[in-house]
Amino acid sequence: MAQAWPDLAPLSDAVTHNVKVEVLSQYSKENSKPTQGEWVFEYTVRITNMGTETIQLVSRHWIITDATDQVREVQGPGVVGEQPVLAPEQAFQYSSWCPLSTPIGMMQGTYQMVRTNGEKFDVVIAPFGLKARYTVH
User: How many C-beta atoms surround the C-beta of residue 137 within 10 A?
Assistant: First the structure.
């Protein structure tokens, strides 16, 4: 079965419940060890509250897929050790990284948010590609 995701751009942009999530990924040559089967990708996420209520990011759920269709899920509280609170029109940006055992893959997922009234909701992180440069397929 042919996969469409290897053609994914290294960026994504999605708006869910008035929360915009933008992601840009890039291959980290200096942290990768291709001869040992490890490719490292850095990604930067910007989360913007486009709504009228203050919200807080409480947890994350990433789904990471490599070129052999191996799926790894990462779940936990907050992002980079923080659970940012975003007032209306406020944004939070962070960078992190992801190791893969193949030179291409993809990431996608959700953030769980909570409003000041305690209502929880999920925000989509649209799929984006992870691609090492100059890879022979």
Answer: 6
CA dihedral over 61, 17, 119, 87, signed as positive or negative: positive
Q: What is residue 1's predicted lDDT score, i.e. its pLDDT? A: 34
Q: How far is CA 49 from CA 32, 68, 79, 83, 136, in A?
A: 34, 36, 16, 14, 40
Count of structural domains within the chain: 1
Query: Would residue 136 count as lying in a domain?
Result: no
| CATH number of 34's domain | 2.60.40.1470
Question: Is residue 51 in a domain?
Answer: yes
Domain that holds residue 79: 10-131
Residue that has been written with the tokens 């191996």 in this structure: 70
CA distances from 13 to 3, 10, 19, 127 (A): 21, 11, 11, 9
For residue 8, what pLDDT is reported?
Answer: 83
Q: By three-state DSSP, how is residue 2 classified? A: coil
pLDDT at 7: 75
User: What's the pLDDT tens digit per position in 79-127?
Assistant: 999 999 999 999 999 999 999 999 999 999 999 999 999 999 999 999 9
